[in-house]
Design a protein that fits this description.
The chain is α/β, with parallel strands linked by helices. The chain contains 9 helices and 15 strands. It folds into 2 domains: 138 residues, NAD(P)-binding Rossmann-like Domain (Rossmann fold, 3-Layer(aba) Sandwich); 170 residues, Dihydrodipicolinate Reductase, domain 2 (2-Layer Sandwich). It is globular. The two termini are 32 Å apart.
Length: 334
């Protein structure tokens, strides 16, 4: 069973009904493989609004939703709640798609992974940007040697969230957003760089608060050393942009993903010309939710399952430690 189009739609419940919860629900429905049939949030107004927009049944408690006949859940809640929700869903035999990061600590990630494995349910984490056709092409070019010997991979992920008056209050709290934009934005590129260049040996991070808006650091820079010898760096911020780009520097060519996956250019050694590379359009969120629905129906394990997503959590935890201690931190993967 591979989740073919004539299979009955997977029945999912949404937990966390803010902006991103709505994005996930809409993308899931667009696949044609999913029905959003239930929802839960602590706010009765949020439940009523979401249910009206998405035509689903609102539940006034998490336990009631998990006791219903949904096949799985979409979780889009504050980061510190992820582990507990994943565990509760797994114990209720519900498959889980949870927004990134899986958790903020390796210990919590391991609790979530263990619970899903013990229950035999799918656990998938929303690291969608590695799926961008531009990043897939960069990965192919690295692996084939088309870029030559690899020297560095780098990324920028910034968006002026701190200036958005409608930003959810929890996103401004330090316990939910350690090290500036890392949990909201930068974790996407940690996963992408990890996907492109492999395991990370160590990190050094600097994170500062230069602006008076909120409690969150607004400027964060991370240097990576990959086990392969490749170097890397990441800049992330919730106070500038938006800009999202990934660059792979090789001895034969430089590949640049700019415009958050919209453009891919190749610059050959010795030339200043940026050659546009063709890309097939892809809705990366719908793509990952298609994979989730098919995994529920007996397909292959998701690409960014709990074990894979825990690696990004290990890097995040090391970045938090490095920024706090102002020192190089060696990576220890679980």
């Amino acid at each position: 069973m591979l989740g073919l189009p004539d299979d009955p739609p997977v029945r999912l419940g949404s937990i966390g009904l803010g902006w991103w919860g709505g994005v996930l629900a809409n993308s899931a429905r667009s696949t044609g493989l999913v029905d959003i049939v239930a929802c839960f949030a602590r706010s009765a107004d949020s439940r009523k609004s979401f249910a009206g927009e998405h035509g689903c049944l609102p539940f006034d408690s998490l336990d009631a939703l998990l006791a219903s006949d949904v096949d799985g859940v979409l979780i889009a809640t504050p980061h510190t709640t992820h582990a507990g929700l994943v565990i509760a869903a797994a114990e209720a035999s519900k498959h889980v798609f949870v927004d990134k990061p899986l958790t903020l600590t390796v210990a919590e990630a391991t609790r979530a992974v263990d619970a899903a494995e013990a229950a035999g349910v799918v656990l998938q984490v929303g690291h969608n940007r590695r799926r961008q056709p531009a990043n897939r092409r960069i990965k192919e070019s690295i692996d084939s040697g088309a870029l030559g010997a690899m020297l560095e991979v780098s990324a920028t992920h910034a968006a002026p969230l701190l200036f958005n008056p409608n930003l959810a209050p929890w996103r401004r709290r330090l316990e939910e957003t350690p090290v500036g934009g890392m949990a909201a934005l930068g974790i996407h590129q940690v996963d992408t760089l990890h996907y492109l260049a492999g395991p990370i040996e160590g990190v050094f991070a600097r994170s500062t608060r230069l602006l008076p808006e909120g409690e969150v650091d607004d400027t964060t820079t991370v240097v990576f050393q990959f086990k392969s010898g490749i170097q890397g760096h990441l800049f992330t911020s919730m106070a500038t942009g938006p800009v999202v780009e990934v660059i792979a520097h090789g001895t034969e060519a430089i590949a640049r993903n700019t415009g958050d996956g919209e453009n891919l250019t190749l610059q050959r050694r010795g030339s200043t010309e940026l050659v546009d590379m063709p890309l097939d359009p892809l809705d990366t969120i719908a793509d990952e939710l298609t994979e989730f629905s098919r995994a529920i129906r007996g397909g292959a394990q998701p690409e960014t399952d709990g074990v894979e997503a825990r690696k990004a959590v290990a890097v995040l935890e090391a970045i938090v430690e490095s920024a706090a201690a102002n020192r190089w931190v060696e990576l220890v993967y679980p």
